[in-house]
Amino acid sequence: MGSQQFGIEQNALVHYAEEIKDALDMGAEVAIVIGGGNIFRGIQATAHGFDRVQGDYMGMLATIINGMALQSALEKADMPTRLLSAIEMKEIAEPFIRRRAVRHLEKGRVVIFGGGTGNPYFTTDTAASLRAIEIEADVIIKGTRVDGIYSADPEKDKTAVRYDRLTYDEVYSKNLQIMDMTAFTLCKENKLPILVFDILKKGNLKKLLQDSSIGTLVDS
User: Fold this and answer.
1) Cβ-based neighbour number of residue 61 at 10 Å
2) In whole angstroms, what is the distance from residue 158 CA to residue 163 CA?
3) pLDDT at 45
4) Sign (positive/negative) of CA torsion 67, 37, 183, 87?
5) Which string of b and e fits 66-99 if b means at least 16 CB within 10 Å?
6) What is the pTM of this model?
7) Under CATH, which architecture does the 1-137 domain have?
8) How many helices and strands (H and E) does the chain possess?
9) What CATH superfamily classification does 138-220 receive?
10) Which tens digits make up the pLDDT trace of 92-119?
11) Is 95 left (phi over 0), alpha (psi -120 to 50) or beta?
């Protein structure tokens, strides 16, 4: 949503497309899990009188809308893409099939995973961890508004300490909220490294792929 309060901002899409193109040009295989909070957050649905399950499905559909918007921006920047959905909607996205996703990546296409996990009560963090494990990704990269993991929210606490590297157990012991615990536990159990970095800074994804100290690395 960029600088807006909700919705989709074109400048934000262009920025993401440029960052992803840099990674693709370096030879990386790129798969993306996108959230939908700029349109609708399922977890907040109960506050508006929605059933939680219904709200979660609404949130999953929001990720498809974002996925379509990102796909359009990527293709305008001359990148081949495929949008795969955990919820079948064959007119606009392919169904998620693991082998097909891997084949798209091998062919140099950017794969966008929409629809979360396809199940209520799971976040897009969990979808990202699950899909990364399924396609045997080398690392899961989480783009945020800050340059790594801190001991507290650096936007609220000026004394917050930045970490260059953490183990999975240290994240647990320090109670650091880098992603929901279901997603984090999936990463830990499958020894999938996590990199957290500032996605908003121009050129940062390319720098991160060259030097992981641009962000915070979590591994064993």
Assistant:
1) 18
2) 14
3) 72
4) negative
5) bbbbbbebbeebebebbbbbbbeeeeebbebeee
6) 0.93
7) 3-Layer(aba) Sandwich (3.40)
8) 7, 10
9) Acetylglutamate kinase-like (3.40.1160.10)
10) 999 999 999 999 999 999 999 999 999 9
11) beta
